[in-house]
Write a structure and sequence with these properties.
The protein is of the alpha/beta class. About 30% of the residues lie in helices and about 20% in strands. The strands form six sheets. It has a seven-stranded parallel beta sheet, with helices on both faces. A five-stranded parallel beta sheet has the order 18-17-19-20-21. A three-stranded antiparallel beta sheet has the order 12-13-14. The longest helix is centred in the first third of the chain and has 17 residues, at about 105-125. The radius of gyration is 26 Å and the shape is elongated. The chain binds flavin-adenine dinucleotide. The site of flavin-adenine dinucleotide has 28 residues, from α11, α12 and β20.
């Protein structure tokens, strides 16, 4: 085992076995102790503290570290919480990756900021924001207004558009420098992609599409709950040994916190060394699916959701009338998408969109768990169903038992009578 001038045993790289995955760099708690040269990891002996984390992280046995190997062999079966906590020492704070879309912070980031605030208060720690972009100081200020204590910002033309590798490395570097214990990201197209890249670089655990987040106060662990086995059960997942504990959450799952423009926080600038001219150029963006179809069901204040029991295109105009009358939109269950009556962008549920309208009206929707996880945050739930025992009828605030072809026209008539000023809208 080589030693440095302080007599500290340090790890040694076997260049022939190194695959250049950079996991050792991600695991190293002293960023200047390691680097990559020609695709091979290098250790600076005088900076290395001999902790052996690079050895633990290496997937190809390209690192020799005897002392740690002996210690590992002597380790008892159940390592226990205390030991797990030791390996995650120094990591503090609940971080949110702030997604920027067309110069503005994505709403899901503010929803996560609200949840992060709650988690951080339980842990007695800070809410941190990780922000990448160009000219994004106003977004950092928004983050503070939504509950963030410190925003770490890397502002560069290189970050103008999202690129997996660039953003992935940058956020991983932010994690190495700031050392948050938790990192939350929106389960959006960007967040899903980015979280995977960051988790791979950091060798961290990632739980996708969580519907609930809480803290195990005894062990200081993040409890990440999500549907599993096709939505038939809810699993609560913990990540004991790696930091940050990473989770993605879909838009509209968490409540949007109250915005306080007078709230004070800190903005710290990080130089992550990204060079715009060395990057691929983005020529054109494909518009989002709802921008093509004209309807974003996640934003509708009222949603009339068509289920298989009302899956008849001859009567769709009637349901659209009901939605329009209430200033809302039409969504549907997966059964209706599968029947080809409405497009996927209208689907509510686990594999569709998560919605939380002020009023959700389920028409002929049974309330399968995979559907419920996508709409249970709605403020008021109205269900129309011939079966009074359907699960949707059990969770509804108002359960209307009957054939939708009889109930919906009466509902429209009643609403029109109460809202005479809107009468013309449905025609
Ligand atoms: C991995 C996985 C992911 C899934 N993801 C989703 C998802 O994202 N979203 C989703 O919706 N589903 C999803 N599903 C499917 C889900 O399990 C159900 O099959 C689906 O939600 C059922 O849709 P439904 O309620 O419209 O139809 P059904 O379950 O068939 O219910 C129809 C309802 O209509 C009522 N009805 C019949 N006639 C009338 C009438 N004339 N008037 C009034 N009521 C009437 C019936 O009593 C019944 O309750 C998923 C399944 C799996 C396995």
């Amino acid at each position: 085992m080589p030693k440095n001038s302080k007599g500290r045993e340090i790890a040694e790289i076997i260049p022939a076995k190194c695959i250049g995955c950079e996991r050792c760099l991600a695991a190293c708690p002293v960023p200047e102790a390691m680097t990559m040269e020609g695709g091979v990891a290098i250790i600076f002996p005088e900076v290395c503290i001999g902790c052996g984390r690079c050895f633990d992280a290496c997937p190809t046995e390209a690192i020799i570290f005897e002392r740690v190997r002996k210690k590992k062999a002597a380790k008892p079966e159940a390592a226990g919480a205390a030991e797990a906590a030791a390996s995650v020492d120094g990591h503090k704070g609940v971080a949110v990756f702030i997604e920027v879309y067309q110069g503005h912070g994505a709403e899901v980031s503010w929803e996560l900021m609200g949840k992060a605030r709650e988690l951080a208060d339980k842990l007695g720690t800070q809410v941190l924001g990780f922000l990448l972009g160009h000219n994004v100081k106003p977004v950092a200020e928004e983050a503070i207004a939504h509950g963030c204590d410190t925003v770490y910002m890397a502002d560069s033309p290189a970050f103008q558009v999202y690129l997996s590798k660039l953003y992935g490395r940058a956020v991983a570097k932010m994690c190495q420098q700031v050392k948050p214990e938790i990192l939350l990201l929106g389960a959006t197209a960007m967040g899903r992609d980015l979280s995977g890249v960051v988790a791979t670089i950091l060798h961290a655990g990632l739980t996708a599409d969580c519907t609930g987040l809480d803290i195990d106060m005894e062990k200081r662990l993040l409890l990440m709950t999500r549907p599993t086995f096709g939505g038939s059960i809810m699993a609560t997942i913990v990540c004991q040994n790696q930091r940050p504990q990473m989770s993605t959450v879909r838009p509209r799952v968490m409540k949007l916190p109250r915005r306080d423009p007078g709230r004070k926080g800190e903005i710290r600038t990080l130089d992550l060394g990204a060079q715009a001219d060395s990057l691929p150029q983005v020529i054109e963006f494909m518009p989002k699916a709802h921008e093509v179809g004209g309807v974003d069901i996640t934003k509708a204040p009222v949603l009339v959701v068509v289920g298989k029991g009302a899956c008849d295109s001859r009567h769709l105009p009637m349901l659209e009338d009901l939605a329009r009358l209430l200033g809302g939109a039409v969504g549907c269950s997966r059964a209706v998408v599968q029947a080809g009556m409405l497009p996927y962008v209208r689907q509510v549920g686990q594999t569709g969109k998560t919605v939380a309208p002020s009023i959700y009206i389920g028409v002929g929707v049974s309330g399968a768990v995979q559907h419920l996880v996508g709409m249970q945050g709605s403020d008021r739930i109205i269900a129309i169903n011939t079966d009074p025992h359907a699960p949707m009828m059990q969770i509804a605030d108002y359960a209307l038992v009957g054939d939708y072809l009889e109930v919906v026209p009466r509902l429209i008539k009643g609403i029109e009578a109460r809202l005479p000023s809107l009468k013309g809208v449905s025609s």
